[in-house]
Amino acid sequence: MRVETDLWQQKGDDWQQAFIATNLLVIGYNAWVGYLAGERGAVVCSLKTPHLGIAGESFPSHYVPRSRMVPFLNAWLANPEMPMLYDRHLNAHLLEAVDGYNPQTDAILLLESGGRATLFYLRNMAIAPPQSYKTICMGWDEFHLSHSDLSQMSLHQFNLTP
Questions:
Q1: Which of 9, 88, 114, 161 would you label with 153, given CA atoms 20 to 30 Å apart?
Q2: pTM of this prediction?
Q3: Residue 8's closest CA among 49, 47, 52, 44?
C-alpha cells in the first residue's frame, strides 16, 4: 500500500524529533555500518515514498560516504521532483558536518520529506552508533539458526495432489 501523504508530518509540529527518536537505533546502525566500510558520511532517509506493511511504516535509507557526497547531492538536488531552493552553501555545510562529527557518538542525517531536505547533526546520541550496531546484531543472532538447530528439526512433507 502506497501512502500518498507524509504520515510523519501528520503527527504534529515536532514530527522530525519524533521520527528521529522512533528510528534512532536504525539511524545509528546505518551510520556505524557505513563508517566501518571505510569513511565518514551521512545517513540519508527519504520519506517521499513510505510504505505501510504488516510491520508498520518503512522507508528507504542508505549511507552516503564522504567521497560520494558531492556527486550525490548534485544529482539529488538537480532532480526535478525535489522542489527545493538550491542553497549553494548546502554542500559546504554538509561536508563540514561530515568532516567534523565523532562517529563513536554522533551521526549526520539528511532527511527528505515534503519536497524538502533537512540536515540533522545528531550529537551525543542516546544510543551511540556502535551500540546501535551491537543491539541490532544481537537481535539478528536470536533468529539465526545454527546447523545443530536445523539438524534437530523434523520436516514432514505431504503431497496433496495425486
A1: 161
A2: 0.74
A3: 47
